[in-house]
Amino acid sequence: MFGTGRGRRGQIAIHPALALRGGGGRCTLRTVRVRPLLLLLALGGLAWWFGRARSGPVTHMNQGSRNLALAGVGARTGGDLALTRARQVFASAERKVELDEEFQLRTAESVRDTLGGMKGAMMKIGQLASFLDQGLPEPVRLALAELQTSAPPMAPELVAEQIERELGGPPDELFAEWDPVPIASASIGQVHRAMTRDGRAVAVKVQYPGVDDAIEADLRAADWIFGGLGTAFPGLETEAIVDELRERLVEELDYVQEARNQRFFAEAYAGHPYIHIPEVVPELSTRRVLTSELVDGVDFATARTWSQEERDRAAETIYRFAFGSLYQLRAFNGDPHPGNYLFHPGGRVTFLDFGLVKHFEPSEVEVFEALIETMVLERDIPAFRRVLRDAGLLRESERFSDEAVEDYFAHFYDFVLYDGDEYTITPEFASDTVRRMFRADEEHVELTKSANVPPSFVIIQRINLGLYAIFGDLHATGPWRGISEELWPFVSGPPTTSMGEEIARWERERRRSVDDPAA
After folding, report:
1. Residue 499 and residue 346: Cα distance in Å, rounded?
2. Phi, psi at 362, each rounded to 5°
3. How far is the C-alpha of 88 from the C-alpha of 483, rounded, in Å?
4. Taking burial as the number of CB atoms within 10 A of a residue's CB, which of 146, 155, 351, 397 is the most buried?
């Protein structure tokens, strides 16, 4: 959904394990942190489940090797857990905690190393786990976080072969300078620094040979995964979800499509004071190689160490990019994870990776707007329920009372319902959002089973799964309701922050230049 929610005005509807702390116009959610020891075991098991359905050679490992590697993670983890539990029998309370932490770190490193070498959807699982559940112990999150921007790279000879195959020559001939050591490597490709013959510093993204076969196999396995989810959540139209994921992920493999998406956003935000999109170099880009402007900036791990004021401004920029693009451009960059941002002082953010972009029809955006109007602006829950029903978001909606619908869905709109001066998005809030989607409590179990995710909502749910996790990690604080009303075209509110005022000036100047090119 597209914000988060309160139950009744002035009263936050939250998970029973949460408590509210507020005062002075500032709202913060707190919770007891639950350390999900078994999440990493589940991660290894899920990866093995994916691997069972694969066939044919993929990336660096053949099918038999991949299955053995995945099964080995589970076997090693199970044996290590048994040994850890045995050691804890006569250990002190303090030593038991230490043994748990050591086990979790070893498991995370094993999963990281295995998935990092496999690329494709396997590595994406590790990336997602690294920032999705804020309850993970810090050593575990740090181990998996390496998958966000780095993983075992391709051999330099393999990279050169791929570039020659795509661009017609080896990199040391096509570029004035070429760095064979990648500056980043992720689930589908890796990035190298280079200098063009005309003196431009560029980043060259090279797709892993065979990763398209790996993704295809993962998409075939998606029917297994969503078939199981369909049993747990009977309201889900699993076939439509799989079709939408397949279409988006196939597009992500096509760097020509990604270049088109990147140019679309670069043109929309050209000259923007805070949002920066690198320019594409089309003559050095193909379906499997993408060359664009090289940008210097700091990664998410470094940005997390900045002052709270700097983190808040960075979060405001990311928020404005995500929701401004959705409501004003009818487009959403569907892969919001920490490795896709470069941070600059003062709130400026460079956005990377436009492979997974969803362009919406006007009628689809109208549904998003109707949900906000009925839940946030009018607080008309019967009308909100009708929108849910008509959009296919809630099957058999008549089974549930207005109070039950409001109590469950209002959480997703919480920080745009809050009308105080500032609202802090915490890690606990992000984790609770994920739990509401995938692990319903006793109070909401029947409603959750009746919920559905129509195709137009599949990619947009990355807001809940990724964007809010990032904001929670930053403890992002701001007047989110006011900022949202600036971005919602059905409100078009005045600027509420200094960033908003500067952006408003940029928009006026941009309109003047379009109306009068000679000005």
Report:
1. 10
2. -55, -40
3. 51
4. 351
Q: Which amino acid is at 325?
A: S
φ, ψ of residue 100 in degrees (nearest 5): -60, -45
What pLDDT was estimated at residue 359?
A: 93
Name the nearest CA neighbour of 149 among 189, 204, 195. 189
Give the DSSP letter string of 252-315: HT-HHHHHHHHHHHHHHTTT-SSEE-PPB-GGG--SSEEEEE----B-HHHHTTS-HHHHHHHH
Which residues are CB-contacts of 372 (< 8 A; sequence separation ≥ 6)? 2, 3, 413, 416, 488
CA neighbours closer than 13 Å in the CB half-sphere of residue 289: 25
Q: Which entry of 312, 335, 407, 414 is annotated as an active-site residue?
A: 335
Helix H, strand E, coil C: the string for 237-264 is CHHHHHHHHHHHHHHHCCHHHHHHHHHH
Of residues 392, 290, 372, the one with CA closest to residue 326: 372
pLDDT at 370: 97
Residues of the chain with pLDDT under 70: 1-91, 93-153, 186-187, 214-246, 438-443, 515-519
Reference 426, options 2, 8, 14; nearest CA is 14
- Bridge partners (DSSP) of residue 57 are none
Q: In 63-100, which positions are buried (b, 16+ CB within 10 angstroms) versus exposed (e)?
A: eeebeebbbebbebbeeebeebeeebeeeeeeebeebb
Tokens representing residue 332 in the block: 């959403």
pLDDT value at residue 337: 78
Encoding tokens for residue 372? 């906000």
Q: Residue for token digits 């086990």?
A: 103
| Whether 113 is catalytic | no
Joined together, the tokens standing for residue 321 give 């990019």
Q: Are 479 and 312 in contact (CB under 8 A)?
A: no
Region of residue 176 (left: phi > 0; alpha: psi -120 to 50; beta: else): alpha
Work out whether strand 18-23 and strand 26-31 pair parallel, antiparallel, or are unpaired.
Answer: antiparallel
Whole-angstrom distance, CA of residue 192 vs CA of residue 307: 31
Cα(337)–Cα(132) distance, integer angstroms: 9
Give the predicted TM-score (pTM) of the model: 0.73
Torsion of CA 247, 253, 256, 258, to 10 degrees: 80
